[in-house]
Design a protein that fits this description.
single chain; elongated; transmembrane; cell membrane; MetI-like; MetI-like_sf; transport
Length: 244
């Protein structure tokens, strides 16, 4: 907390401007950013809701697809392992390359940004969930077999339950990746959203408003992350990481 306060004070006193040889129009002061947030609060709130909707729906869709792929790869390793590799390779494609393709497929509405976010969040869930489902304790598996558990019961109560810590790790990664995907997608084809407002503000040299978009996006990302962390504590209290 003290380090954060000191950082903002140094920024306000233009210490970073002198260090990096920047003008205040290149790096607005925190006071100017706060003024921009206050003066454009209604616009920022409206565009933030739009961007957050894209990020949430895209993340949920991408995470669901990734989890389904992990299930297939675990149940049928011979067929599913190749899918994990393909998703990992697809994740290496830059967002700036995906944006025009998704816009061509899904139009210039919200659907294209949801598709971009889904594509960028699918791999993290697929890889993490698959790791969790295949990294089970051999003793636990022997115990389930000793109790004559069926394959479906082993899958449900051991593999899926054991993968939950990995799933929530992937969701935390996707919480920030989803915001990045939505904002970058709005740079190219959008008439609303924080990315659109940020891009237009920088083009017309309204740097305080552009930085206000960055601050709002960062706050949304932190809240999104903390919400997932809260859900993690509620759903996996049995895990050693959730014990006090």
């Amino acid at each position: 907390m003290l380090a954060g306060v000191a950082f903002i004070l140094l920024w306000q006193r233009q210490a970073f401007h002198h260090l990096l040889h920047l003008r205040t129009y290149q790096l607005p002061l925190p006071s100017a950013i706060v003024d921009a947030i206050r003066e454009n609060a209604e616009l920022l709130a409206s565009y933030a809701r739009y961007t957050l909707t894209e990020a949430v729906f895209g993340m949920l869709l991408g995470s669901a697809l990734g989890f389904a792929l992990a299930l297939i790869a675990t149940a049928w390793p011979k067929w599913g392992s190749g899918g994990i590799i393909l998703v990992a390779a697809f994740n290496a494609v830059p967002i700036v390359a995906l944006a025009p393709i998704m816009n061509l497929w899904f139009g210039d509405g919200m659907g294209s940004r949801i598709a971009i976010v889904a594509a960028t969040t699918m791999a993290a869930m697929a890889i993490n969930a698959h790791k969790g489902m295949t990294s089970i304790d051999p003793l636990a598996l022997d115990l389930m077999r000793a109790y004559a558990a069926s394959k479906l019961q082993v899958f449900r109560y051991l593999r899926i339950a054991g993968s939950l810590p990995y799933v929530f790790t992937a969701l935390k990664i996707n919480a920030t990746a989803g915001m990045i995907g939505a904002i970058v997608g709005e740079f190219f084809f959008s008439s609303r959203g924080l990315g659109y407002l940020m891009s237009n503000s920088i083009k017309v040299a309204k740097m305080p408003l552009g930085w206000a978009c960055i601050v709002v996006a960062a706050v949304l990302g932190v809240i999104f992350y903390l919400l997932i962390e809260l859900l993690e504590r509620l759903f996996i209290r049995w895990h050693p990481s959730g014990r006090v």
